[in-house]
Design a protein that fits this description.
Layout (H helix, E strand, L loop, with lengths): L11 H28 L7 H26 L4 H13 L7 H21 L3 H20 L7 H19 L4 H25 L4 H4 L2 H5 L4 H14 L8 H6 L3 H8 L10 H6 L11 H31 L2 H15 L3
C-alpha cells in the first residue's frame, strides 16, 4: 500500500489504516526524542557505532536481496552482482533516508550540545518557535529547504529544553497530552478524507498533516516518551530478546526487496495491494503485520548474531576501539 489509499472514499478500513499510519510516524519521531534525551548532555560520540550501523544496514539489505533472488527471481551472476552493489550503497541511498539523517545527526550531537550549552532560556524558546514554524511550513508545502539534520536538530533542541527546565515532569499529564495530540491528528485525517469526496485536492493534504515533523506529531512523540521513560523496565526475557532486533526489523520492512509497492512480503505473498476494499481488511492487516514482524525478526536476529560475532573478534574490536579514540581526540 502507498499514500494514495488515503484518497479512497472514507470507510472503517481507511480509518484503521490511518490509525496505524499515524502511530508509525509518531514512532519515528519518538526514536529521535529518545536519542536526544540520552545524548543531550554528552560531548563525545563513538564513530564505531556509525561503522556498525552502516555494516548492519548493508548486511540486512544483502540478506533480503539474497532471499528475494533465490525465492522469486532468476539466480544469475548479474542479479547477484546487483544485490551486492545495492547492499553496499544502501546506507547512502535515498531509500534509507532515515539512516543517512540519523548518522549525520549522531555525529553532530557534540556540536549541537556546544551550541545549546550556554544559550539563555528565552533565546532557546525563540529558537524552537522560529524553527518549528519554518519546518512546518516547508513540510506542509513540500519545500525541502531544510535537510533531515535540521529536522532532527529541532527535536533535539526541544527535548534538551524540556529535560533542562522541567525535569521528570508529570507522567499523567504526558499521557493525556499524548492521547490528545494523537486523536487530533487522527480526526484531522478523517475530516480531510471525508471532505476530499467533494473536493479531491483537500484529500491530498492528508499526508502533509501527519508525515514528517508536524507539530502535533512531535508533541505526541515527546509526551509519549516522557510518559514511559521513568517506568521500571520489565524483566521479560522475550522483550530483551526482541528489542535488539527492532532496528533490523525496520531495515527489512523498509527494504527495496521486502517493502514498498512491489514488495515481497506485503504484495507478492500477502496480497495487500488492493486489500483496503476487502471486508476483512482489519483482520487481514493485523495478521499480515504479525507475520511480517515475525519473519523480519527472525532474519534480523540471525544477522544480528553474525554482526556481534564479527565485532567481538579481537582484531576487529581493537580496530573499533582505536577508531573511537582517534575520533574522540578531535572533539
Amino acid at each position: 500500500m502507498s499514500w494514495e489509499f488515503y484518497l479512497e472514499p472514507f470507510t472503517l478500513n481507511i480509518a484503521f489504516a490511518m490509525l496505524l499510519g499515524n502511530w508509525g510516524q509518531v514512532a519515528v519521531a519518538a526514536y529521535i526524542v529518545m536519542s536526544s534525551y540520552y545524548f543531550c548532555d554528552t560531548t563525545k560520540v563513538k564513530l564505531s557505532k556509525v561503522i556498525i550501523l552502516v555494516f548492519e544496514t548493508q548486511m540486512m539489505c544483502f540478506t533480503a536481496g539474497i532471499i528475494y533472488t533465490v525465492g522469486f527471481a532468476e539466480v544469475t551472476i548479474k542479479t547477484l552482482v546487483r544485490v551486492i552493489l545495492t547492499a553496499m550503497v544502501s546506507p547512502f541511498s535515498g531509500h534509507y533516508w532515515f539512516i543517512q539523517g540519523y548518522i549525520i545527526f549522531y555525529l553532530s550531537i557534540p556540536l549541537l550540545n556546544i551550541a545549546l550549552r550556554d544559550i539563555k532560556r528565552m533565546n532557546h524558546q525563540r529558537l524552537m518557535i522560529v524553527f518549528g514554524i519554518l519546518l512546518f511550513i516547508c513540510d506542509f508545502f513540500q519545500i525541502r529547504a531544510f535537510g533531515t539534520l535540521v529536522d532532527f536538530a529541532f527535536i533535539f533542541s526541544i527535548t534538551c529544553y524540556i529535560k533542562r527546565y522541567y525535569g521528570a515532569g508529570n507522567r499523567r499529564k504526558s499521557v493525556i497530552l499524548t492521547v490528545g495530540c494523537f486523536l487530533s491528528i487522527f480526526a484531522a485525517c478523517i475530516i480531510l478524507n471525508i471532505f476530499g469526496k467533494y473536493q479531491p485536492d483537500i484529500a491530498f493534504m492528508i499526508p502533509r498533516i501527519f508525515v514528517h515533523w508536524n507539530p502535533l506529531i512531535v508533541c505526541c512523540a515527546i509526551s509519549l516518551f516522557w510518559s514511559v521513560k521513568d517506568r521500571k523496565r520489565s524483566g521479560s526475557k522475550i522483550i530483551y530478546t526482541i528489542a535488539p532486533t527492532a532496528f533490523g526489523i525496520y531495515l527489512l520492512h523498509e527494504n527495496i526487496y521486502f517493502g514498498g509497492r512491489d514488495s515481497l512480503l506485503w504484495i507478492k505473498i500477502l496480497h495487500l495491494d488492493d486489500a483496503v476494499t476487502n471486508p476483512y481488511f482489519v483482520f487481514q492487516l493485523l495478521v499480515s503485520g504479525l507475520i511480517v514482524f515475525l519473519i523480519c525478526m527472525v532474519v534480523a536476529f540471525a544477522v544480528r548474531v553474525i554482526i556481534n560475532s564479527v565485532c567481538n573478534i579481537k582484531p576487529v574490536h581493537r580496530g573499533l576501539t582505536k577508531v573511537d579514540d582517534w575520533y574522540g581526540g578531535y572533539l
